[in-house]
Amino acid sequence: MGELMAGVALPLDLSSSEFHQRKYEWYPQLLESHPVCTGKVSLMKVSLVSRYDDCRLVLADSRFVRNRGLARGRGSSPFPVPLPKSVAALATGMIIRDDPEHRRLRSLVNQGFTGRAISKLRSRIEEIVQERLLQLRRQQGPVDLLESYALPIPRQVIAEMVGVTDEEGAQFTRAVRTLTQGLSGLGLVKTLLWDMRQTHRFIRDLVEKKRLHPSEDILSELLVAEEDGDRLSEDELHSMVFLLVVAGFETTLHLIGNAVHTLIENPNSISRLQAEPTLWSSAIQEVVRFRGPIHGTKFQYPTEDVTVEGVVLRRGKPVMPLLGAANLDPRVFNQPDVFQIDRTPNHHLGFGFGEHFCLGRQLALAEAETAVKALFAEFPNLHLAVKPSELEHSRMPGWHRLERLPIHLS
């Protein structure tokens, strides 16, 4: 398919440091000249789809599925090789299921993520944010805002949602961070053989404790969730808790971090938000579009050959919609490379599209808005403690996230 840019040949390696440092230079040319191209994730070749309408097609068209086995006509297993039992119990959840199974699972857990349910959590989110601000006030010198602020907030929210006690907090944090940092490269082997087993044991014990001592949290609700006599199986329950913890924790952490970084780079937006605080909700939505944490979805698999932009996507071969590029498509967004906190409309794909549209998006938005708004109110002059070029980006495929965010608070 030729060169993408001078000296940069396809396939694009989504695990490379160069891609993560330069993707915003390359996205416009992808959108213009290579709307469907070949990429590489670890050792696997994948077709990358970048234009907005094409991403929506791949995410919503019934000819594309998440389950690799179904696409290839090899039974219902989504994995190419057998997995350890503890891994399969956690990894075969809703996120890689297709309708009607996906619809069934989603309907059983949906009540815990409605706008009404999230509004009940807002006061507690505000309390947690104030607790973290109090800790920040006590710190001297530069701080890593991810570790000191953006991480503890969703960790505490999710921990309380699934009933993790203070005594279990350290084990909970260790399990989550180990998993989310070890899902690619050499770390994958250790994750599959050891970390997932420990996490499965932790979730299993958590479920058993909650079954004996239910309370007003989402895990207790999942235990009794029922529709037309149907309930979650034990493995489905474990995988749902796993998805809630990993997806809810990591996505929100980096949405907060990316929002702070983006606003520091756009000081005029900070001034306007201070003058017009009603724009905060819109501003966070614009962060999701402009510098959202999720840039690529789980692989989609065609169940038949499908032609997109003149390129044939072969049956059973992996396809990744590049949401980060789609959200900068000039065919949809006016001045897509400009951060506009009052952008209307803003139909970004930062939380996906179609049947797998992010179930926890309202929770992530509520946490991010509360955390970032309160941070800038408390520390209106916060700024980077390093040069922008010294910020290190994670090489996790499909993500836009920093490893650290060193900040001077005043």
Q: Can you tell me about this structure?
A:
This protein is 50% helix and 10% strand. It is built from 16 helices and 13 strands. It has one domain: Cytochrome p450 (Orthogonal Bundle). The mean pLDDT is 87. The protein is α+β, with helices and mostly antiparallel strands and 410 residues long. It has helices at 17-33, 52-60, 68-71, 85-91, 101-109, 115-137, 145-150, 152-162, 169-181, 187-212, 218-224, 234-265, 267-275, 280-291, 323-326, 361-378; strands spanning 3-5, 8-9, 12-13, 36-41, 44-49, 64-65, 143-144, 301-302, 306-308, 311-313, 319-321, 383-384, 406-408. The strands form five sheets. Strands 3-4-5-11 form a four-stranded mixed beta sheet. α6 (115-137) crosses α8, α8 (152-162) packs antiparallel against α12 and α9 packs antiparallel against α10 (187-212). 42% of the residues are buried. The chain is globular and about 55 Å long.
Can you tag this structure with a few keywords?
globular, 13 strands, alpha+beta, 410 residues, 3-stranded antiparallel beta sheet, 4-stranded mixed beta sheet, Cytochrome p450, 16 helices
In summary, what is this structure?
The protein has 410 residues and is an alpha+beta fold. The protein has a single domain (3-408), classed as Cytochrome P450 (Cytochrome p450).
